[in-house]
């Protein structure tokens, strides 16, 4: 490093995560082996967002700046030999967004210090990043306490012949969640056809939009659960739960170049039916006690007697049709999944959950997250073994991207962590068939 033996930036109490409007303080430590002629020693605090059109590229196609402040901690003169300490202090603006790091863009905050030397002399620079969290209170989002529901109806065709319709309905208990909370999802499938459906899949999807001349949309499947299919002329209900892992908030308040959206996607492959439920991810959970009570039903006046609907007279029993004099060959009864639509209304049943579910982690299994996860996660408990493992490893406090990074709050270097709930598991092909077995008529025709 030449004449400088030490050039380091440190924050007070080793703090690296701040809120908008906080004051960031620290010191610049310089130890030089020889006197240095300098015009000034300056410290700069700035924050900006950069978006690129290439993966993991820092040649920004679009950029916006949030703040840029520079102070001089030493004037022109000679920096004597030995150690020197220069304190600094900056006030972070209240409009600064939350830190974020993605494959096509970043929101970066850092402190830079540099020794400005005379002409033809070497300048010395040092920099250190810090991170800002702007908490998102979900209770400030309009209509956040309402349930999120959607439905779709689609014709069911098989071999270019219309075979019926599929009605898919999905409902979530809330419209906003915090990391560690559980999304309670209820799905109803009404199969008005003579063919069984494929498995039903519910996914938590993250959509990040990087705004350039040609916007880039990055879609990630955060978590996925799967249930069995519905047989012909059956009506089934499927109840599942999805644990929300540590995720960046939606939206990024104060950032105009990066937008984050989340939604639950419920789909069937056969037939191709899909619906979405938009949700929000924040830092302060929804207060369900604020829900407005339903309007009371006005009582019926006593003077008005209740009206009894008139019942129609019973219809006479149909006459039996005369039997044919020709004998017909006997055959097994028709399969229940291929009954025609005239048989009656679909029968209701409960759908079992397959191996893609987050629930099937063994009896008494907890969510695979760290006790030191940054985002507010009410109701998330951890076993004693996880606490011991977490105490041995470096603490991490924030997750600003879909996969990374996690930052430390101690005096150790920032590290990344492998959280199994952040990336979707690698689901291979299952052993469950997607098509029903052949019917009796089909078997006879094939032979």
TrEMBL record:
Pfam families in UniProt: Arrestin_C (PF02752), Arrestin_N (PF00339)
Biased composition (Low complexity): 356-371
Matching InterPro entries: Arrestin-like_C (IPR014752), Arrestin-like_N (IPR011021), Arrestin_C-like (IPR011022), Arrestin_domain-protein (IPR050357), Ig_E-set (IPR014756)
GO biological process: nervous system development; protein transport
Domain Arrestin C-terminal-like: 162-286
GO MF, one example: ubiquitin-like ligase-substrate adaptor activity
GO cellular component, one term: cytoplasm
Region (Disordered): 288-371
Ranges annotated as biased composition (Pro residues): 295-319
Top-level taxon of the source organism: Eukaryota
Signal peptide: none
Recorded family membership: Belongs to the arrestin family.
Stated name of the protein: Arrestin C-terminal-like domain-containing protein
UniProt source species: Alosa alosa (allis shad)
Lineage: Eukaryota, Metazoa, Chordata, Craniata, Vertebrata
């Amino acid at each position: 490093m030449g004449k400088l033996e030490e050039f380091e930036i440190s924050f007070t109490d080793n703090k690296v995560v701040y809120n908008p409007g906080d004051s960031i303080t620290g010191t610049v430590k310089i130890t030089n082996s020889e006197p240095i002629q300098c015009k000034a020693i300056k410290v700069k605090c700035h924050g900006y967002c950069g978006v690129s059109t290439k993966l993991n590229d820092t040649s920004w196609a679009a950029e916006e700046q949030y703040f840029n402040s520079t102070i001089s901690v030493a004037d022109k003169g000679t920096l004597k030999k030995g150690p020197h300490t220069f304190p600094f202090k900056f006030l972070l603006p209240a409009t600064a967004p939350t830190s974020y790091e993605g494959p096509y863009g970043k929101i970066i905050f850092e402190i830079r210090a540099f020794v400005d030397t005379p002409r033809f002399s070497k300048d010395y620079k040092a920099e250190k990043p810090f991170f800002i969290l702007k908490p998102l209170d979900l209770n400030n989002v309009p209509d956040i306490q309402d349930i999120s529901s959607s439905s779709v109806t689609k014709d069911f065709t098989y071999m270019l012949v219309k075979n019926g319709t599929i009605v898919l309905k999905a409902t979530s208990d809330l419209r906003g969640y915090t990391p560690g909370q559980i999304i309670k999802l209820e799905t109803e499938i009404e199969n008005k056809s003579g063919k069984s459906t494929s498995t039903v899949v519910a996914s938590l999807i993250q959509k990040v939009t990087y705004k350039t001349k040609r916007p880039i949309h990055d879609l990630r499947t955060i978590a996925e659960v799967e249930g069995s299919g519905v047989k012909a002329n059956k009506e089934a209900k499927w109840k599942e739960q999805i644990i929300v892992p540590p995720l960046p908030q939606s939206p990024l308040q104060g950032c105009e170049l990066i937008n984050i959206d989340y939604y639950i996607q419920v789909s069937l492959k056969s037939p191709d039916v899909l619906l979405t439920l938009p949700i929000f991810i924040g830092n302060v959970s929804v207060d369900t006690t604020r829900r407005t009570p339903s309007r009371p039903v006005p009582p019926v006046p006593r003077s008005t007697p209740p009206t009894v609907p008139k019942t129609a007279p019973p219809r006479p029993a149909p006459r039996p049709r005369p039997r044919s004099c020709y004998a017909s060959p006997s055959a097994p009864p028709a399969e229940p999944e291929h009954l025609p639509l005239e048989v009656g209304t679909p029968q209701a049943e409960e759908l079992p959950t397959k191996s893609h579910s987050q629930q099937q982690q063994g009896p008494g299994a907890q969510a695979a997250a760290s006790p030191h996860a940054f985002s507010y996660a009410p109701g998330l408990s951890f076993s004693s073994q996880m606490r011991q493992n977490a105490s041995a490893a470096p603490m991490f406090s924030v997750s600003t991207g879909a996969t990374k990074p996690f930052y430390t709050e101690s005096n150790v270097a920032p590290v990344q962590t492998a959280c199994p709930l952040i990336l979707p598991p690698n689901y291979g092909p299952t052993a469950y068939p997607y098509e029903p077995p052949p019917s009796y008529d089909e078997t006879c025709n094939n032979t």
